[in-house]
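I had to read the description of the data format several times before I understood it. In essence, backbone conformation is discretised, so a fold becomes a row of integers matching the chain in length. I therefore recommend that a typical entry be quoted early in the introduction. For illustration, here is how one protein appears when written out as sequence plus structure tokens.

***
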Amino acid sequence: MRSSKADRTCKKKESSTGPPCTLKRENHEISTTNVGNDDELSKMSVSDLITYAKERNKDPTIEHVLELLFQKIPREISQEGEAEKRSRTIVISGIKESAEGLRPTERSHDLKSKVDEILDALDIDCNISNVFRIGKPNGNRPRLVKS
């Protein structure tokens, strides 16, 4: 079980007879004795809340669970963002490939205009941020388009 240097320093201070420990994180201080009301707790970041809970806790199992929770939170947030992005993605098949002599920017504009025509025909009002083809070019059939 790993703990940060600030956590170890704070635990040493708490075990001594000195004043209560104060952590300095991300340009603000957290006093382990004065925190307790909901207003102060709601202003703390996730990492500060977990650090505060670990300091108040004496059970090593709970400390380990809090550490695992801290590691999972950013991963789950990024997965939610990825799921949101995927829910708004469409894949279209059958759009003809651009002529071979076009420059990359011209191919991109051509593809975007073809997708815009399809969306207009379906009466879908949206602003497309990315349009691209999936896979390697194959002379037999057009590649899928992801938008």
